[in-house]
Amino acid sequence: MDWCHFRFRSVWDLPVPAASAYAVLERAEEYPRWWRQVRDVTPLDDRTVIARFRSVLPYDLVVTARERRREPETGILEIGMSGDLDGWARWTVRATPHGAGTCALYEQEVDVTKPLMRRLAMPGRSAFLLNHALMMRSGRRGLLTHLEAV
After folding, report:
1. Radius of gyration (Cα) for the chain, nearest Å?
2. What band does 79 get if pLDDT is binned at 50, 70 and 90?
3. What is the rounded distance in angstroms from the CA atom of residue 67 to the CA atom of residue 80?
């Protein structure tokens, strides 16, 4: 097993139309407004940003995120990442079967490159997984609050 390799999957059920959820999720530069663990998003150009994250554990992760796919018609947003994490992340946003809301699926597959995290990858794996789960839970709550205000 490669202790520095992580796969994540989160499902967010949202009580809004898929197009509304997609419109918010495609604006990464606005994530810090509603997702408190996304500390900074700095655009480099119209397809690339530098993002800084910090959840419960006392360390920041900084990545350069490059848009790979932006497909409103299929509900897919995908980025490639490099920096403290190397890999990809993808949102798949779809209306629920009964049309009463949206299912936003988040998938991520990354290798940790930050030296401290690599050293702690085996003994700290469960803490890293919990840290990510807490970040995703908080992100969903923040998005719901943001969507209510819009």
Report:
1. 15
2. very high
3. 6
Count the neighbouring beta carbons within 10 Å of the beta carbon of residue 96. Answer: 13
8 A C-beta contact, residue 77 and residue 106: no
Buried b (16+ CB within 10 A) or exposed e, 129-144: eebbeebbebbbebbb
Name the pTM for this structure.
Answer: 0.95
In contact, 65 and 44? CB cutoff 8 Å:
no
Give CA–CA dist 139/117, Å, rounded: 22
Q: Give me the sheet containing 38-45, strands edge to edge.
A: 5-14, 102-112, 85-95, 76-83, 61-71, 48-53, 38-45
Q: SS3 sequence, 31-97?
A: HHHHCCCEEEEEEEECCEEEEEECCCCCCCEEEEEEEEEEECCCCEEEEEEEECEEEEEEEEEEECC
Q: Is 111 helix (H, G, I), strand (E, B) or coil?
A: strand
The per-residue pLDDT for range 21-70, each reduced to its tens digit, is 999 999 999 999 999 999 999 999 999 999 999 999 999 999 999 999 99
